[in-house]
Design brief:
about 210 residues, seven-stranded mixed sheet, 7 helices, alpha+beta, 2 domains
Length: about 210
């Protein structure tokens, strides 16, 4: 079995490109992790779908991944790197073989793994597709801002909503339901509105401290 040593991973339910990692994310310092090479079509499925992996494959990776934990090491039961000739990701499975987390690699570490993977024999991993992940072209920052707005919009007083609506669209509107409907629609397709509404709520939060 082929292994990669001493890399950083950032596991999330939704795949995040390395440039979207945040300082407060739980970054795992991997001591040792198995590496498998597959066809591009299989890697696409691993990156863009939720899969359930064949039980026979689980036996191959069981307890093979180690992370640094202070002076000690910790074992991850079902975890591995999977790549093709031009891309690689990390996958974290539950005990039933269902994919629960994925991680990108830092660009320099990804390049080092891709140099190694050219020498690795291709593996045909058996799996079942449980779902295809919806393509979302919004960045992590955009999604976090939208979630922040959604948490606050129903707590906003009518007067503040009217002000916000006028500030965004330069139109006066008295119907609160119409105001909310348009704001909620626009934050899904106009990031200029997202930024303006987000800054409004951040300013409100500063004033109430």
């Amino acid at each position: 079995m082929n292994y990669i040593y001493d890399i950083l991973l950032n596991f999330n339910t939704n795949f995040l490109e390395f440039y979207e990692w945040n300082l407060n994310d739980e970054i795992l310092h991997i001591r040792k992790i198995p590496l498998f090479r597959v066809k591009k079509t299989q890697l696409y499925d691993f990156k863009n779908c939720t899969l359930k992996i064949d039980p026979l494959f689980l036996k191959n990776i069981y307890n093979k991944t180690e992370i640094f934990k202070g002076r000690n090491k910790k074992i991850i039961k079902y975890c591995f790197l999977i790549g093709s000739i031009d891309d690689v990701i990390a996958v974290y499975l539950d005990e039933n073989g269902k994919m629960i987390y994925k991680s990108d690699l830092l660009i320099d570490e990804s390049e080092e793994v891709l140099e190694v993977i050219n020498e690795v024999e291709e593996t045909d991993i058996k799996y079942q597709k449980l779902s295809i992940n919806k393509v979302d072209f919004r960045t992590r920052n955009e999604k976090e801002k939208i979630n922040y707005i959604l948490k606050n919009i129903n707590k906003t007083t009518p007067d503040k909503l009217k002000y916000l609506y006028y500030d965004c669209f330069d139109i006066k509107e008295e119907n609160i339901d119409k105001i909310k409907d348009k704001l909620l629609t626009k934050i899904n397709d106009d990031f200029n509105v997202v930024n303006k509404v987000y800054e409004f709520y951040k300013l409100l939060s500063y004033k109430t401290r």
